[in-house]
Amino acid sequence: MEIFLSLFQNLLPLYALIGAGYFAARVLHVDKQSLGNLAIYMFMPVVVFGFVARLDFQLSYISLPIFYFLASVILGLGFFAMGQRVYRDKQANLMAMCVSMGNTGYFGLPLVLLFFDTEMVAIYVFMMLGGAVYEATFGYYIAARSHFDVRQSINKLIKFPGIYAMAAGFAVNASGVELPDLFWDYWTHFKGAYVVVGMMIIGAALAGIDKFVFGPRFIAFVFVGKFIMFPLCAYAFIIMDQNITHWLSPQIHQLVMMMAIVPPAANVAAYATQMNMEPEKAATTILIGTIFALFYIPCMIMLMGI
């Protein structure tokens, strides 16, 4: 119980930042789009570049974004097909997105920073590439209800600054260039800023919804997919590595599970609004999933032995 309470207390400041973001958007009228642009185009590229530049890269790490992409595709398309039988409307699309798109960046990265060292965080950042590619391809396909525009999807992926920051980081890493201490001093500040702004974006996104719509059956489906099926996929990948491939260390296995247990992505609310897929139900599901994660994640972290 003491371990659980300690983990719970470590997570509370992150939730306080979500509350601050909600307050900032509701009361101070801070634009969530501006917060998002700061995080995506200013803070995240610097943070990603720094982590990748000092990553001790191994060829086996390529399996991580590939696994995350494939797991997202399998669960996304699987729950989309199941949702079409249950709902026969846009709720099927929304359910698939909530299951397959986790909040690995704004929520997951601060968690990893909290529990892992710099080397492990760099590996986690590299694994996030699988989620970015999924969101720009199959994620967009599901959101657009099969109106799959390849050009628009590719443009979305091309505009993702994290990819270029990662490429630049690998170039510096491979060249053996030593970055100056001044860069690392400011990189630390950017890292903190990304955590603060990233968590506030979740609250700001929730503040943009005028009412919440609670769908018990819908939430049950999402919870089964996101908090049970996704971790089971991660566990199957870990068992395969432990018994067959032997590519990854136990700590990296913990990273894989950490990425699998985050709540649904805040971006789902933006997609739901854009595509008119019951945005109120999307926001309610994201909010409940994020609150549930406050208790669920400490339990999972205890089981993983982090």
Question: Care to describe what's here?
Answer:
The protein is globular and about 55 Å long. With 306 residues, it is mostly helical. It has one domain: Na+/H+ antiporter like fold, CATH 1.20.1530. The two termini are 15 Å apart. Helix 2 (32-53) packs antiparallel against helix 9 and helix 5 (104-115) crosses helix 9 (181-207). The mean pLDDT is 86. The chain has 13 helices and no strands. The longest helix is centred in the C-terminal third of the chain and has 30 residues, at 216-245. The chain is 80% helix and 0% strand.
The gist of it:
It is built from 13 helices and no strands.
What is the quaternary state of this protein?
A: single chain
Here the CATH topology equals Na+/H+ antiporter like fold
Distance between the termini: 15 Å
Residue share in helix: over 70%
- Please name the CATH architecture: Up-down Bundle
Keywords:
13 helices, mainly alpha, single chain, Na+/H+ antiporter like fold, globular, 306 residues
Record the SSE blueprint.
Blueprint: H1 2-26, H2 32-53, H3 63-86, H4 91-100, H5 104-115, H6 118-143, H7 150-158, H8 161-175, H9 181-207, H10 216-245, H11 250-260, H12 267-275, H13 279-304
